[in-house]
Amino acid sequence: MESAGEYDYIIVGGGTSGCVLANRLSGRPDIEVLLIEAGGRDDYMWIHIPIGYLYCIGNPRTDWLFRTEADPGLNGRALIYPRGKVLGGSSSINGMIYMRGQPADYERWAEVSGDDSWRWEKVLPLFKRSEDHYLGASELHGAGGEWRVEKQRLSWKILDAFREAAAQTGIPKIEDLNAGLGEGSAYFEVNQRRGIRLNTAKAFLKPAAKRPNLTIMTGCHVERLLFKDGQQGKACSGVQFSGDGRMFTATARRETLLAAGAVGSPQILQLSGIGDAGELQRHGIAPVADLPGVGANLQDHLQLRMIFKVQGVPTLNTRATNWFGKALIGLEYAFIQSGPMSMAPSQLGAFARSSPELPAPNLQYHVQPLSLDKFGDPLHRFPAFTASVCNLQPTARGHVRIASSDSYAPPKITPNYLSTEADRNTAAAALALTRRIVAAPALKSYRPEEFMPGPQYQSEEELAHAAGLVGTTIFHPVGTCRMGREDDPQAVVDSRLRVRGVEKLRVVDASIMPFITSGNTNSPTIMIAEKAAVDILAGHKTTA
């Protein structure tokens, strides 16, 4: 066993939150930081070309290649579960969509954690701190930060028509999906810089990498956390990890910060003896802290993909099904970084209510000018668009559990999609709402014809079944190390993200969310890291 040295802070995971933490903490020259990432550098061409997510997801160079367990709610189907295994983490392979969620999300976090610093008015400045919005600084947006937010560099007639149809159905056109206005539709804003993906490795880590007090180690697999006796129990003293065929230990003088994501963080905790004691003992792992909430509370947005054939309007299906069209697409990107190769996976967004009596939107649409049977399959050869809709606040809860004591064995991921009556009812209502939008006058001239799941599903029960046929993850897992009050037996971390019962250890990533945000989860994860960094730096002078 070799020593990799001693540092003030060790960050486990060079993904979305890890890159932010590394930047903020190493900004103090008197703080020594080690960042450990299992994947490699983000020097793969397809990371930076927006359409390249097609080549990064399912690629062992950039993806952990997780799969879910067979899910009864999806009629026994198992899903791919992409998580970034590269600097930048999932921000290197995701949809680049900039969303914060709704203000009510953070009010709910404050209530469940007992900490008013999580309220919307307190976290908004943290969002703005990172942000570099293309319109400049305003009451709602920041300028000059690392996280660039731009308009998309394209438009599609079919998406404009869907937006008009949504307005005719009662979902108004709005300019800013992040203004907390409730219902409305707009083109998503994206984390790109002039048509090139911006991941957190480029935005946050690259500017910090030259600092002598920041050490970055890639290709290093963390096997477990290390512990010593603390003032009131066990304290995390560092980590054990492997790389280049050798085994290392690294020591943290101050804290170890677990930033491995909603799958990786609970897995590492369980492998290290932190989790449900009975479950750990079943795998021959001696418990360090009995925390049954580790790996529990898994939440994700299940997107229900409805496909409609159309006539008389261009879609990507027809543009990209011949070599001439593909060549034009390539030239458009090569010369002006625009067109389909600059596309986020979804271009048009909308927030809506599945029932008019609801106080706030509970559905989010991701609409695309293309269609395919499933991710990774070729585009259909007929013109079509896809309207994906997800339940923003699902009531189902899943879990992530280690399969064995082998740190290289993938964990068992069980989302339990559509396992509650409320979620099935919302799914049925969401499919019915989509049909009403598509039937509106704005789309009539394109003669939309439902291709998937198909018009044969009509009753609420049939639509709920159809949701299980077409539903798939939209890659937003959260909640598996959730924060909560001291008397909450399922809480893994407190409101300052410190692990219960273990000193000098925090979790700083999407796993701490007690409830999933009402929208895409990448930028809320950046905010979480910003908040943790402020707290850590404020306490650095006094922390022994």
Tell me about this structure.
The structure is a single chain. This protein is an alpha/beta fold and 544 residues long. The chain is 27% helix and 22% strand. It is built from 15 helices and 25 strands. It has helices at 16-26, 45-48, 53-56, 103-113, 120-130, 157-168, 200-208, 261-271, 277-282, 316-319, 323-336, 421-438, 441-444, 460-470, 522-539, and strands spanning 2-12, 33-36, 66-67, 80-81, 131-133, 147-149, 184-187, 192-193, 196-197, 214-217, 221-229, 234-243, 246-258, 274-275, 289-290, 302-309, 348-352, 363-368, 384-391, 399-401, 412-414, 449-452, 471-473, 502-503, 505-507. The strands form 7 sheets. Strands 1, 2, 10, 11, 12, 13, 24 and 25 form an 8-stranded mixed sheet that branches. Helix 9 (277-282) links the parallel strand 14 (274-275) and strand 15 (289-290). Helix 1 (16-26) runs parallel beside helix 7 (200-208). The longest helix is centred in the C-terminal third of the chain and has 18 residues, at 421-438. The protein is globular, with a radius of gyration of 23 Å. It starts with a strand and ends in a 5-residue tail after the last helix. The relative contact order is 0.19.
